[in-house]
Each structure stands twice: as C-alpha cells, then as structure tokens.
User: Which sequence fits this backbone?
C-alpha cells in the first residue's frame, strides 16, 4: 500500500512539474518583438511584400528579386533590446547572410554572420544589443530565384523563440505550403499571328509577342510545336505563350521578366489533391481582347514592381521611376474533360465557383498564372497594347509540355502542395 501511495505522489509531483515547465515554455516562446512592426526590403517579387515576414502568419512570405545582395529590415520606432533572431526560410533561402543593427537606418553594425547555410528554420543568438533597426542582409542565394522568408522573428531579453530540430527525413522548414511549378520563358519574336484564334491565317491578327517555343506562327499545331525548340527554363517545355505587344510612344517594348506559374490554388484542398495534368494540345485563352471597359471577370491586373503602394488596376498604372510595370493574368483551371479547344476558344474551360469546378467543367487542372514585367514607368497615357487599353490584356497558351513531364510535376508538386522550381523538384 505504501508503495502505491509513493508512486501516486510521485505522479502528482510529476504532473505539477510538467505544468510548471509548460508555463515556463509558454512564457519563453513569447510573440516576437518584431511582429507587426514596420518592415521594408531591398526588393519585392510577385507581390510578396516585406510586411508578410513580420505578420505572424506562417502562410505569407517576403520574396526578393532574383539577384544578390538583398535585405529585409525591421523598424521598431525606438531603441529596443534584442538578442535573438529566428529566420523561417521558404525554399528560396540564403546560403550566406549577416544580421545587422542600426540606430539611424544608415550606419550598420554586424552582430552575426552565417555562411554555408541550408535553409529551414534557423535560430541565431547574439550579444544583447539595443537599436532601432535590425536587418538580415543576404549575400548569396541557394537557388536561381531570390530569397524568401516566411517569418523574420526578433526576440529580446526574457522572450525566446523555439529552436526546432527536424529529423533528416523531414523537410527543413515550411516548404510544403505552395502548390506550384513554373517555367521561365523569355521573349522570342513578334508576329501578327494567332494560331488559336486565326489558325493558318498569317497576318490576320494584331501584333503578338511570343514566348517559349521558337517556331510559333499562324500554322503552328501541336505536332510542329513538339518538333520545335524552346528558350524556356526548363527547355523541355515546348509550349507557346503569347500576348498583345505592348507599346510605349508607339515603340514596341518587351518584358524583361517572364514567368509562367502552374498553381494548385483556387480550389479547395481536397480538389487540389485531384488535379489532373493539362492535356497535350490544350489551348486556353484568358482575358478579353475586345473589352471596351475594365472587366472584373478577366482575372488580370496591372501593378508596379517595388511600389506596391501604387495598388493594382485593370488598366495601366503610373509607376514611379526606378520601378517596372507588371502584368498578372490568371487562366481558367476547370476543363470540360473532352475538348482541347472550342469555337469561341473559351467554352471548354471555366473558372472555379466557390473554390470548386462547375459540373459542366468537372476536371481540375493546374492554374496557369502569367507574370510579365516590363521596363516601363511613368505616364500611362504613353502606353498601349496592340489590342488597345490595358484592360484588353489577354494571353494565349498552347500546351506542348511532354506528357510525362507534365504528369510528374502534377504528381510531385501540385497534388502534395509542394513548391517546385523550373526543374520540377522542390
């Protein structure tokens, strides 16, 4: 009987100790002092602004342009004591960086330096210091893309962040949050052709700027595209992409950054897990070349890179000097399951309704997002498209991905909700 009582007491004491440790842990893992503070960055890519890295939301992120060096800065508004930073890297991490503090935002002191890093979640402790500003200054990228942080967490005395130790079999950090693969396809040529709208009729269209497949013209078919070559990364993407040519003061200007994202977003998670490969030869047209006014249904917008405060618009926007005009266009992602094209070139595809594909178009496929960045800023009255005002922006896609490559990316990237690069790998 006494042994039973002894063990019961020990158990009770153990529960009490566990509760006390839980309280201590909860106090230690306080919210970072950087959360909700003002954040700025050296650059911004794809609308992933600096504030996303200090919002406490593990699903939003900051991303930079594709160059070195880059930085992300937090302004506390007044001198603040700090001694620890937790960096929660997205798949595009930095292999080398410095943590720096400043009292004026101009002169910086380095408090920690890291090289040969592997991404994931990294905790950096340093000698307690007091400063108004802190930044992470990256000098080397791990990928061909920029650098990207889910969260930049700063802690002061009395509050520290968790130091997770993932097992080798698990991904390092929260990289399985974005369902995506992509192709970077630069400008190839201009022609007044459109092999979807005016097949076999050279010169019948307004001027188009083509990307990807080098052979595209009015006579293009899936067979000629598969027999052609591509400037895409990856080069195996033999698809053709085209848009109305953009003019500034009546001179053609081509985008300098051209990325085509294939996404699993836009539908519920259980539908993402059922997404099917885009069928070979599928033709999709998004936008309205004949629009006479902004059309909310076109899923397109214009904005300014590096100047997100300028907002987005269906028509051209006035971008400050030093920025670029960018165009976003989302293609429909629900297929009727039968037709690779339709008489109006749109009826075989549909956009989701309430995050699900309508019964008339029951097959979910990856959503194509076209992102073009033009070296253009200033007065938008100087700018036009070959089709007219900015709200006539439209895009054409002729799918010539090799079927095995498309299937692999849908299977390994889209369905399991993993962010993959141009090579189809995380």
Assistant:
């Amino acid at each position: 009987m006494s042994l039973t009582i002894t063990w019961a007491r020990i158990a009770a004491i153990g529960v009490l100790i566990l509760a006390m440790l839980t309280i201590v842990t909860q106090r230690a893992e306080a919210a970072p002092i950087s959360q909700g503070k003002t954040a700025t960055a050296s650059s911004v890519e794809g609308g992933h602004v600096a504030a996303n890295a200090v919002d406490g939301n593990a699903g939003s992120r900051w991303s930079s342009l594709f160059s070195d060096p880059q930085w992300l800065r937090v302004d506390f508004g007044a001198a603040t004591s700090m001694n620890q930073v937790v960096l929660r890297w997205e798949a595009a991490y930095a292999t080398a960086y410095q943590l720096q503090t400043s009292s004026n935002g101009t002169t910086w002191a380095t408090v920690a330096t890291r090289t040969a890093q592997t991404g994931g979640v990294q905790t950096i402790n340093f000698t307690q210091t007091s400063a108004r500003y802190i930044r992470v200054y990256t000098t080397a990228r791990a990928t061909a893309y920029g650098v990207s942080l889910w969260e930049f967490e700063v802690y002061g005395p009395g509050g520290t962040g968790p130091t997770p130790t993932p097992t080798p079999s698990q991904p390092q950090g929260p990289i399985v949050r974005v369902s995506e693969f992509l192709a970077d396809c630069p400008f190839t040529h201009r022609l007044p052709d459109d092999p979807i709208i005016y097949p076999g009729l050279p010169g019948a269209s307004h001027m188009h700027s083509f990307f990807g497949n080098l052979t595209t013209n009015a006579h293009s078919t899936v067979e000629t595209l598969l027999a052609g070559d591509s400037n895409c990364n990856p080069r195996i993407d033999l698809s053709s992409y085209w848009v109305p040519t953009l003019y500034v003061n009546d001179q053609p200007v081509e985008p300098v950054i051209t990325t085509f994202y294939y996404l699993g977003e836009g539908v519920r998670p259980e539908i993402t897990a059922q997404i099917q490969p885009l069928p070979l030869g599928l033709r999709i047209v998004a936008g309205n070349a004949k629009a006479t006014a902004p059309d909310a249904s076109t899923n397109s917008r214009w904005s300014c890179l590096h100047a997100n405060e300028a907002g987005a618009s269906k028509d051209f926007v006035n971008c400050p000097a030093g920025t670029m005009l960018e165009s976003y266009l989302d293609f429909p992602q629900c297929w009727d399951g039968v037709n690779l094209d339709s008489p109006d070139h749109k009826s075989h595809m549909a956009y989701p309704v309430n995050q699900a594909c309508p019964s008339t178009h029951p097959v979910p496929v990856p959503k194509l997002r076209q992102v073009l960045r033009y070296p253009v800023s200033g007065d938008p009255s100087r700018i036009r498209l070959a089709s007219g005002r900015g709200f006539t922006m439209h895009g054409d896609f002729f799918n010539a991905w090799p079927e095995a490559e498309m299937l692999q990316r849908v299977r390994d990237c889209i369905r399991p909700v993993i962010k993959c690069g141009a090579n189809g790998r995380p």
